Amino acid sequence: MTGRRWVIQLLCVLVSLFMAVPIYLITLAALSSRESLDRFPLPLLPTSLSGETMTTFLRSTGVVGGLINSITIGLSTVVLSLAIGLPAGYALARYAFRGKDAYQIGLLLTRALPIVVLSVPLGRTFLDLGLYDTTYGVTLLHTALALPTTILITSAIFLGVPPEQEEAAMIFGASPLVAFVRVVLPQALPGIAASALFTFVLSWNEVLGASILTLGRRTLPAQLLATLADSPLAFRFAGGLALVLPALIFIAIVRRYLLNMWGTTLR
Amino acid sequence: MNVTVKNLVKTYPSGNRRATDDISLTVEDGEFLVLVGPSGCGKTTLLRMVAGLETPDSGTVTIGGRDVTALPARERGLSMVFQSYAIFPHLKVRQNIGFGLTMRKVPRAEWDSRVRRAAELLDLGDYLDRYPAQLSGGQRQRVAVARAIAVDADVLLMDEPLSNLDALLRMQFRAELKKIVARLGTTTLYVTHDQAEAMSLGDRVAVLRDGRIDQLGTPMAVYSRPASQFVGGFLGAPPMNFFPATVSSGRLQVGDVSFPGGPSGWEDRKVLVGIRAEAIGVSADIPGTVEVAEPTGATTLLTVRWAGGELKVQTAAGFEGSEVGLSFPPAALRFFDPDTSLALH
Amino acid sequence: MRKLWLILPSIVFMTALFAWPLVSGVLQAFSGSGTFRRMVDDPYFWEAARNTALLIVALIPLQFALAVTMALLMREKPRFAGLHFYLWVVPLAISDLAAGLVWLSIFTDRGYLNSILEKAGVESYAWLSVENPSTMFLAVLIAELWRATALVFVIVVAGLQNVPREYDEAAAVFGATYWQRLRHVILPQLKPSLQVALILRTILALEAFAVAQALTGRSFPLLVGETYQWYYTLQNPNVATAIALVVLTLSIVASIGYLRLMRP
What we know:
By secondary structure, chain A is mainly alpha-helical. Chain A has helices at residues 3-30, 34-38, 52-59, 63-94, 100-109, 115-129, 135-159, 163-171, 176-205, 208-213, 220-227, 233-265.
């Protein structure tokens, strides 16, 4: 290897260390026993691993409930945003219609809206509608946040299936719906799954809106944020790990689609 | 079953020009009719309206006497081969070929035997359990054709099915396609921009230009008696030669050269003369200079400069020399009105 | 009109959950008298505004330099590229609250950084203490750099894929050095990607708050954190909305500014 290759390898390792070491340390902290977390200096190697900190965390008030709420809201958000977003993404990919450009620009503009701007007025409306402090309310907000991305990603996916294939299916006797289900959907499924995961992670991570729209039925991050100041360090480390874990899994699954997803929707 | 289109008009929202401009046409039962023309002439639009993939602005489509203009594609009882093949990448060859049968809910045993028959007709018997991604371009094309014939439809539509194949494969498959369709006897409407394909495949050929049919006839009739300068120039390789001449007492005057021939009743007027490259003689008295000689194996193609400009002349293989004495057999001369470019009769 | 039925639900939904709250939010902020007065009279507001601005100004150039470097490293196809890529994009899916908690384990008084220093014989330091505003800022900066560089990286990598290698190779054939190629061939073609990344990152940086909250509590206030305080602790949704509108205005101004600035 030439000197230049060595420098490149070295730099890559340095960047990877910068990204990986904090994750290693929070995992170490969350899997250490109470007693070893009180020691100073802290051990840097996993010498005294224990599930004690995580168990205590899970037994704390509101954590399991928050976990259930987070999962419920995440899954409902996935279902709702696909139910609304898939047809729109399909229409965007297949048809020309008046106001199409305006529609697409509108979708992109929603990214510029800070979540707080929506959350506070929505909180007031939800209070009137009886949706305040329910999983439904948070689901609606998260769907609104995920929908533009869902529409743009799925439309890029549908663009990848040539319209002639649907036409061929219809020539050979399929109705438009059958053509979609038997020809387009199977080919679009991996991309749709990636988009669904993306939506789930977005909902899992969102904290501000969920905090503003709920009081008792908090999501896990909202619960963590609300109790941050009063909770012991061990609790916060365990919470940190609980929040990071889905990210590790999510990225491992969608790594292959990542560039396409961002490449097509961000331009 | 015959296919008749009447007064079909279609304008796309983006263009102000009509894609098809009042086209009427009948494909007889069992006939192989080719629509040929340059890109943008409306041939694919016409085919897609017959298929039910586009809706005409006005006019009707009837198949076997039944008006299908308002019916969706799936209820027209036809079959189609697409230019991009449009075979389904997520299905095995077997399911691709049987797709139309699946949609028609054909019983299992019959499904199997019909898929097998179509596959064998196209030499795909060994590939039934592969996915399209594991096939070559030529094999995918075969799958598309097998899928189209497996359903045993009354009418078969083909949209430039050979244009994605390389030249050698295209020649081979062309002959095979002709054999298969002749054996099935299905009424066929075939679109291509390749004039050689049109000539070799069609029982009749319709030459389209700017959304209208310029000429409709058997390949040899269209080739030897083009109805317009456009048709003569589009069909045949090399295209027909054209040069202007003046008619005077049974002779044609080109510059200071004159030779016998000319349309009757056109005395002392300018006329556009057309002649095929293979009809021109090279051992007579009208002087010409050979600019280029291209041997093609069976023949030699000459580019000759003479009093009337430039000519393509097809002559015997092994031709050599730089000077020729041209002759224009009167029976091979075709005449066109220089103003309208239409043939004189 | 099948296509209308396909997009109509999304339009209704977006109107109900984006357009309507936006309008009613603006009305709400301007209806209560003295709402903006109360906002600007609060010293925390100005501190938060200053911190937010400081964070953006320091963070974004660092982040873009790092992301472009990472993308160029990846273009060289290093060994274990798959593993490196995975580690570099993992933070994409990590929330700012989680990032704050991760780095808290490092910067807290009895955390991993001080543990390492202690073992090296150096005295511990109160990185996150109010008495040390510069290291507190540094901690937030590093946590944000760690969390949010991945987004820029992915956009730049996607952009680089659209830069044909032939251009680069042609330039190399004509004797351009690596730096010349970077300056004259690669970076100009990355401009659209960088522009998108810049707009997106600025908007997202304006919205950051949980990182700082997790690391420092309210010692290092940020604008969006203040809306949370006003809404949650001070129970005043009007002022909360007013601050949110300030953030929105800044987002729009920044986006337009970038588009103007980078126009060809």
